[in-house]
Amino acid sequence: MAARVLVGVKRVIDYAVKVRVKPDNTGVVTDGVKHSMNPFCEIAVEEAVKLKEKQLVKEVVAVSCGPQQVQETIRTALAMGADRGIHVEVSGKDYDALGPLQVSKIMAALAKKEEANLIILGKQAIDDDCNQTGQMTAALLDWPQGTFASEVVLEGDKLKVVREVDGGLETVKLDMPAVVTADLRLNTPRYATLPNIMKAKKKKISVVKPGDLGVDVASRLEVLRVEEPPQRKAGVKVETVEDLVSKLKEGGRI
Amino acid sequence: MALAGRLLNGFRLRQCTSRSIGLVFSSIQRRGIASCIDPSIGLTDEQKEFQKVAFDFAAKEMAPHMAEWDDKEVFPVETMRKAAQLGFGGIYVQPDVGGSGLSRLDTSIIFEALSTGCTSTTAYMSIHNMCAWMIDTFGSPEQRKMYCPDLCSMQKFASYCLTEPGSGSDAASLLTSAQRKGDHYVLNGSKAFISGAGESDVYVVMCRTGGKGPKGISCLVVEKSTPGLSFGKKEKKVGWNSQPTRAVIFEDCAVPAANRLGQEGEGFNIAMKGLNGGRINIASCSLGAAHASVQLAREHLTVRKQFGETLSKSQFLQFRLAEMATRLVASRLMVRQAAASLQEGRDDAVALCSMAKLFATDECFTICNQALQMFGGYGYLKDYPVQQFVRDLRVHQILEGTNEVMRMIISRSLLTDS
User: Of A26, B40, B111, B347, which is most buried, counting CB atoms within 10 Å of its CB?
Assistant: First the structure.
C-alpha cells in the first residue's frame, strides 16, 4: 500500500474574475482580487482523498508554495480530506518569479523528505497554463509520469493511468513511485462539509523554506512585458464569393 | 461577462433560453465583484470557508434550477438532502444528535449565501432548521434521539405550526385544542399557511392544553402518518413556490403525551424562542436575495446602453446603486449583530432580532424592487431572476411575525420599565 501522497495545490486568481494588466505592464493585478484553489488542483486533491477512502494510501499531504495567503488554499485541501499541509514559504520578488522549474525542485525535495511514493498535481494552472510542473518533477525524481489523467487505478505497486491525448485515450501502466497530473474528467471535486471544515482547523500545516530543502528558487526566466491580447478588429462584409476568395488570398489565408 | 453583454442587448435576448441566463447568473452571483458589499468582510477564516461552501453549493446546485422550481412548484427534496450532507440540515443543532453545532452568526452567513441560489428553498431549509433546534433544545433525551438525527440529515422534513385561520399576529389566542386522554393528547383544530405541510414528516404544533392566553399553550411533535391529521389544498402563492403551503387539520388526532416538548404551558415560550432564531434566518435569506440582485443590477448597468452610453454613466442610476449597496450593508450588519447577541444570550437579543428582521426584510425588498426597475421591461420577464427574488422576498415582511409585530416587540422593549 502506498504510504503517502503529496498533492500540490496552487492559489490562483479565481476563474470568474476579469483579469487586468498592471499599468506598468509588468504583470496582472492581484491585490484585492479574489483568489481560489486552481480547479485542476481541486481535482487532484479529490483523487488523493478518494484513494485514501479506498484505503489504498495512508496519508494525503497538501503542499503549496507562496506567501502567507496560500495557507487558505491548504486549509481548503484539508477541509476536503487531506491529512496535513506543508506551506513552503516564498514571498516578494521570489514569489513573482516562482515558476514550474522551482516548484518541481521543491516537490522533488519534499517527496524525498516525506518519503512519498505518489505525487498528484493538477495538469496545469489556470494563471500561467504552463503544464510543466508534473513533468519536470517526474524527471527530477526519475519517476514515471501519467499526465492528463482521466482515470487512475492503483493496483498494488502499479498504477494504471488512462490519459486524455489528442488522438483519444491512452492507457499506461506505471511502476510506483510515480507522478500523476489530473485532467478535467478525472473526478468531480466534493464540497467540503461543515464538520470537515471544523476538523480542518485542527490539522497541522508545517512551514518550511526552500533553503531548508536545499532548493535554489532563483529564476532562469525574466518577464519582459505583459500585455492584453489585441482588441478584436471589425470584420469586412463582401458581396460575392469571388470577393471573398480574393480577400482571403490577399490576406494570405489561402 | 461578454456573454452577459450579448444576452442583455435586446434583440438576441428572446432567443436565449432561461437555462443559459441561469448559467450566466450563477457565474455572476457566485463571485463577489465589488469589495464594499463583499459578504466575507469581517469574518473569521473558518466562517469564510463555511460561506464559500454555501456559495458554491448555491451557484452549482440551486441557481440553475431556481426558475424551474418556482415555475413548476417543485419541492427539491434531493437538492436539500445534498445540502444536509454538507451539514446544512441542522446547522445550530448539537453534534451529538447529528447537527453541525455552529453559532447563530455562522448560520446567518450560510443562509445568506445559500439564498443567492434560491431564496424560497433556503427559507424552507431555515424553517426546518428552526424546528430541529426546538426539539434539540427543549426535547427530552429520547425525543432528541428520536427526531434530530433524521431531521439533520433531512431524511425527514419538519414544519412549524403556530398560525391559525383566526390567529396570526395574535398568536397567543390560538384555538387548536389538545385534550389529555390517558397517555395521549387529542388534537382538534387547524393551522394555516404552514410551510412544507403535506411533504413534511414531523410537525411541531403549538396547541392549547390549558386556559386562555400564552400560558395555556403547549408544544407537541406530531408525525405525518398520525390518524386524524390531514392537509388542506396546496395554496397558490405569489412566491415561495419551491415549498408547498397548506392548512394542517386535526380531527380527533391522538398524539402520544411523550411527544410533548417541555412542560404543559411552556409551548408559547418555546415557539417564541424558536422564532428569535427564525427571524434572523429569514432576514439572512433576504440579505442573500438582495446581494444577488445588486450584483445583477450592477452587471446590467455596465452592459445596457441607452442614449448612446451605458446605464452606468447615468448619475441617477449610479446614486441609486449606491443607495442599494448602502441598504444592503446596513441590513447585513444589523442581522449579524443580532445573531451575535442571540448567541451570547444578551438582554437585547429579542429586540435586536426583531429590529434586524424588520429592517433587513424591508430594506432588502426595496433593493430587489429597485434592481428590477433598473432592468426595465426585461426585469418584468420571468426569464430574469430578479423578479423571482422580489416575489420571494415579499412574504418575508409578513411571516415569522409581521413587521408590524416586530414594531410591537421593539416598542415594548423601549417603553417597559426595566
Answer: B111
